[in-house]
Amino acid sequence: MASAKQARDAIASDPTGRLNLSILPTFWMRWLLPRIQDFARRYPDITMSIATHMDPFDLSRDGIDAAIHVGSPDWKGCKCEFLLPEIMVPVCSPGFLESNPLSGPDSMRSMPLLEMSQRPYAWKQWFDSVGVSGEYRSGMRVEHFMSASQACCAGLGIALLPEFLIENELSSGRLRKVFETRTESGSAYYFVFPVGKSENESVRAFGNWLQQQVKGCGTPTPNGVCSLD
Questions:
Q1: What confidence tens digit (pLDDT) does each residue in 57-89 have?
Q2: Beta 176-177 vs 47-52: how paired, if at all?
Q3: pLDDT value at residue 218
Q4: Calpha distance 179→91 (Å, rounded)
Q5: CATH number for region 4-85+186-228
Q6: For the structural domain made of 86-185, what CATH number should be given?
Q7: Residues 47, 150: Cα–Cα separation, whole Å
Q8: How far is the C-alpha of 149 from the C-alpha of 143, rounded, in Å?
Q9: Which among 100, 98, 110, 92 is positioned nearest to 152, based on CA atoms?
Q10: How far is residue 108's CA from residue 92's CA, in Å, rounded to a whole number?
């Protein structure tokens, strides 16, 4: 494996030095953006171009070198390197919790539970994981995690959100965990790139840097690389 200096030298000798990335909007804003200056400092010869996508797209057709993808490692013709599990926690605003005291997970079924169109079965999976069955009260439906966290901060109900994407809200007290129960969803975050980009120095530099950042945030990462041709 090339050293960081060897990688920088190889990148510097590349006349293009451009890295075209597709990144999930919320992941970009909440997790990657606060850290990306470190990558720019370490690799000043790489010029990044960031596109945010929620819908499926074609890396080769759209001229994208690599992407950060949530789901399962099933992107045909690509390598998928595991980054983070999607660990979900139920949260709400302090005011909502004071007005709606809860005795346990079962008592949540009568509360307005915010739902996301991208995760239509999230609440059912969560209730199943804590051994609670039966109907529950659906609340406002939004499209993305960002909208769900904002609605939650406004006191509109309880949301089920990835813990690492709401670190700021939890540390500031704008959101509180309803219970300490943490469950893994069926999804995870992956660094994805075409098999043909495996030896691309800019792609490898960014992938290695991502893994360092993941380790730094204290989240366990299995040594899983999946190549689907």
A1: 778 778 899 999 888 888 888 999 999 998 899
A2: unpaired
A3: 54
A4: 8
A5: 3.40.190.10
A6: 3.40.190.10
A7: 33
A8: 11
A9: 92
A10: 11
Token couple for 114: 């915010």
**pTM for this prediction:** 0.79
Residues of the chain with CATH 3.40.190.10: 4-85+186-228, 86-185
Q: Is 4 helix (H, G, I), strand (E, B) or coil?
A: helix
**Distance between CA atoms of 205 and 70, rounded to whole angstroms?**
21
Record the tokens describing residue 223, joined without a space. 């040594």
Residues 6+ apart with CB under 8 A from 183: 87, 88, 125, 126, 129, 130
Kindly tell me if the per-residue pLDDT of 117 is higher than 60.
Answer: yes
Task: Supply the DSSP string of 78-121, one letter for each residue.
Answer: EEEEEEEEEEEEEEE-HHHHHHS--SSGGGGGGS-EEEETTBTT
